[in-house]
Amino acid sequence: MRIVLLGAPGSGKGTQAKLICDYLKIPHISTGDLFRAQIRDNTPLGIKANEYIQKGDLVPDELTISVVKESFNKEENKGGFLLDGFPRNLHQAKTLQLILAENKQYLDKAYLINVSKDTVLERIAGRRFCSNCGASYHVSFNPSKLKDKCEACGGTLIHRNDDEEHIVLDRLTVYNKSIQPVLNYYKELGILETIEGNADANDIFYDICSSLKAV
Ligand code: AMP
């Protein structure tokens, strides 16, 4: 199964991605995570990407497509995947179709998790990430049992710079502008499914599972 998961920052995409991947036993490819790994490793690509990420801007397509292509070349991603955070604009969406078509592959579904601005701001203000392994928490909805340490690896939990409210508002503006043509594109292809995202994570997952059964 090849799935694209779309949604604004704070839409709960990361949580749903994990649930779907566990359920379908497919790998989770998150461009945000791929960039953060490159930033942690201080690679030239990571240093370049970080200039944009810190400001809440999109990383240029050339860099973004190169990290996606690299991950598609990995053996474990060849049988199917869930893409999270990609595509974010029409050029990326069309490039993805081309890359897949070259390998005689296609997307099964594009899910949009639809949320209001207020929900996004509430969710992002409480988000915490492990500085070591990237695991995500929320101070109210999913707190770590070890307070400011990661339950999985003991790493320190941090509030990402790009989760500051003024940067989130910028990210939302950028997201809304660039995602609309992507939604239209997937609608035309007949694979777009919109999921109500101002709900509990379990309810959102239930809706996605109901739709997956029909694929
Ligand atoms: P995320 O974790 O998906 O919110 O991504 C964090 C940041 O990485 C975004 O705010 C962008 O700066 C960058 N990024 C992630 N995916 C993409 C993409 N498909 N195109 C451009 N930039 C991206």
UniProtKB/TrEMBL annotation:
Residues 126-163 are annotated as: LID. Its main location: cytoplasm. The keyword Acyltransferase does not apply. Residues 127-162 form the Adenylate kinase active site lid domain. CDD domains: ADK (cd01428). ATP binds at G10, S11, G12, K13, G14, T15, R127, S136, Y137, A199. One of its GO terms (molecular function) is AMP kinase activity. AMP binds at T31, R36, D57, L58, V59, G85, F86, P87, R88, Q92, R160, R171. Zn(2+) binds at C130, C133, C150, C153. It catalyses: AMP + ATP = 2 ADP. It is found in: Cytoplasm. Belongs to the adenylate kinase family. Consists of three domains, a large central CORE domain and two small peripheral domains, NMPbind and LID, which undergo movements during catalysis. The LID domain closes over the site of phosphoryl transfer upon ATP binding. Assembling and dissambling the active center during each catalytic cycle provides an effective means to prevent ATP hydrolysis. Some bacteria have evolved a zinc-coordinating structure that stabilizes the LID domain. This is Adenylate kinase. It comes from Clostridium rhizosphaerae. The gene is adk.
